[in-house]
UniProtKB/TrEMBL annotation:
Keywords: Lyase. Belongs to the enoyl-CoA hydratase/isomerase family. One of its GO terms (molecular function) is hydro-lyase activity. The keyword Lyase applies. GO terms for biological process: fatty acid beta-oxidation. The keyword Lyase applies. It comes from Mesobacillus boroniphilus JCM 21738. It holds the Pfam family ECH_1. Coiled coil: none annotated. This is Enoyl-CoA hydratase.
Length: 187
């Protein structure tokens, strides 16, 4: 592959991962087996990462004389901090799932045979809440993290205001008063 082909391909991959990162809905990466390089960068683009026991992961590109080029150098430090991210990237260290959990790289380690079930349970916990609220909360956190506190608070306020006129908010109030679970419709 020519240098130009490599540049074009990594740019396309990075764009796809950014699209995943910017989805308004919460995203969960179910990691099983090995997630090195681009596989880890895709997982980093998700909001949550759940790994099967025995999984290994890392941004190992420096061992190939390149760097993570699809968002890894930017997403990893935002997740676990600059020093830990540099340690993992510069050493090309491969982490076992339990170590990744200690680093804050993943949300949970589960049995391999129950990985998808556990991810679905986690998704169901979120789905029990108002869809518009989920999207606006994700938006407020992600956008606010890239701003100073005052700007972040303004972002939060505007996101909150989006939820006020929703049918789901009124349904939640009615359900609370009637002591039943709300039936959200995403409106």
């Amino acid at each position: 592959m020519s240098d130009e082909d490599v540049k074009r391909n990594i740019y396309k991959i990075g764009e796809i991962f950014t699209m995943v990162d910017q989805l308004p809905q919460p995203t969960i990466a179910a990691i099983n087996g090995f997630a090195f390089g681009g596989g880890m960068e895709l997982a980093l683009a998700c909001d949550f990462r759940v790994a099967a026991a025995g999984t290994q992961m890392g941004l190992t590109e420096t061992s190939l004389a390149i760097i993570p080029g699809a968002g890894g150098t930017q997403r990893l430090p935002r997740l676990i901090g600059q020093a830990k991210a540099l340690e993992l990237i510069l050493t090309a260290r491969r982490l076992k799932a339990e170590e990744a959990l200690e680093y804050g790289l993943i949300t949970a380690v589960v049995k391999k045979e129950s990985l998808l079930d556990e991810c679905m349970k986690f998704a169901d916990m979120m789905l029990a809440n108002g869809p518009v609220a989920l999207q606006q909360a994700k938006y407020a956190v992600k956008q606010g993290m890239n701003a100073d506190l005052q700007t972040g608070l303004q972002i939060e306020r505007k996101a909150y205001e989006v939820t006020i006129p929703t049918e789901d908010r009124l349904e939640a109030l009615a359900a609370f008063g009637e002591k039943r679970k709300p039936n959200f419709k995403g409106k």
